[in-house]
Amino acid sequence: DIDHFKRINDELGHLGGDEVLRTFARIAQQGVRGGDLFGRYGGEEFLLIFPATSLLPALNTCERIRAQVETHAWTGLLKGRVTVSIGVTQYVLGESVLEFFSRADTAMYMAKEGGRNQVVVEEPIAKGDSLLSEHSGHAFL
Questions:
Q1: CA 62/CA 18 separation, integer angstroms
Q2: Strand 119-121 and strand 139-140: pairing?
Q3: Annotated active-site positions, please?
Q4: Domain limits for position 43
Q5: C or N: which end of the chain has fewer Cβ atoms within 10 Å?
Q6: pLDDT tens column, 105-133
Q7: What's the total number of domains in the chain?
């Protein structure tokens, strides 16, 4: 989620805000592997799915994206920097997509509440006796 996106739209107008969205998408896409799934989820929220990836590599990639967005030389009439708040979690076999997305959303809101411009991990809780192996789930931004 791009932090303070309303401020960006207010400063630049909707066309300028759209350019920030496109630039963010280019930065993020440069930092992911070919098999990763990236796209706009809605508004200023984006979704990144890392198939067959454990939390640590996903966290590292998300942190690199966060840092690249923060240090990007944003052009135009922007009065402040552009930052992102990222929530990361891992899919647990047998859970619903709603549960999975809800956990990622909770992590993202924790990043926002914790001051923005950070990556927060929401650890999955294994269902039943199943334990997560390194390749059992998908990490999610």
A1: 22
A2: unpaired
A3: 44
A4: 5-140
A5: N
A6: 999 999 999 999 999 999 887 655 334 43
A7: 1
